[in-house]
Amino acid sequence: MLSSRDFEKAVQLAFLKFHLGLGQIIGLEDGGEKVIREINIERDEGVRMDRTCFSLLAYADDIVLLGEDEKKVVDLCGRLIESAKKVGLHLNIEKTQYMKVSRELDNLQETETITVGQYEFKKVEDFKYLGTIVTQKNECQIEIQQRIKMGNKCFYVLGKLLSSKVLSKETLRKTEEERLAVFERKVLRKIYGPIYDTDLQGWRKRHNQELTELFNRPNIINGIKRSKLEWAGHAVRKQDSMVQRVLQENPKRKRPLLGRPRLRWEDGIKKEFISAGGAEYDHMDWKEVAENREEWERICSMARWSQWF
């Protein structure tokens, strides 16, 4: 009986043999792409694009054979099968299919299967290669629908997180605010992509100020600030609310704890209130100002558009 360590070594050895065998087939040596030798592909074989012919696409064990007609594809596939047998690799009949690509499919006579030696492959109207759906008529509608479906799936999975109001009730320190801002810029850089710098003669990541100008909307920190102020005003105006009672009673310890005191929720509200309203609100009680809905809404709006980056 194999131990876990012996089993791991056996798996690694099997994978190494598979990798070396596949490398011999498609000509991968030392990680570089080489011309396929065992099946002797000519330069004029395959599908011509501009002045180059493509007859084989390979990524790991995902291989696509290309040809201008069925006879050439059958011949190329047969040579690949024979080359694979030399290193002990065999074709997976269940995962191997064929497809004709043309703008005039209605005028073509297609068979439901194609025979290569002892193998018989089924015809398909589309297939997925390296995460992209390829169709007979080279249509993009199916791929777009698939991506929208995947996006909706991720969106609904994150539904509770996106609609959560927890951050508007939390006391955020400067460290947490910076982490949220870094994450937001990470997402924006992914959306807008890199920019070509003529001075550096190369592509680079967008700077923070460039992201701010492109986005031209309140950042995540300002959104949280506004939500905190809106919720605080609503809680204070509501009669006999738990938050109102806690703020009024303001419980204190008989014996203060050692070290620097932790930032309270009301301390954060006061800070955002003064930051949004300006110096004129420095000596005013935010709870009294919150009783005026119009004035409090104006302060919340100012907090949303305050500068962060």
TrEMBL record:
InterPro entries: DNA/RNA_pol_sf, RT_dom. One of its GO terms (biological process) is DNA biosynthetic process. It holds the Pfam family RVT_1. It comes from the Eukaryota. Residues 1-134 form the Reverse transcriptase domain. PANTHER family: C2H2-TYPE DOMAIN-CONTAINING PROTEIN (PTHR47027:SF29), REVERSE TRANSCRIPTASE DOMAIN-CONTAINING PROTEIN (PTHR47027). This is Reverse transcriptase domain-containing protein. It comes from Aphis glycines.
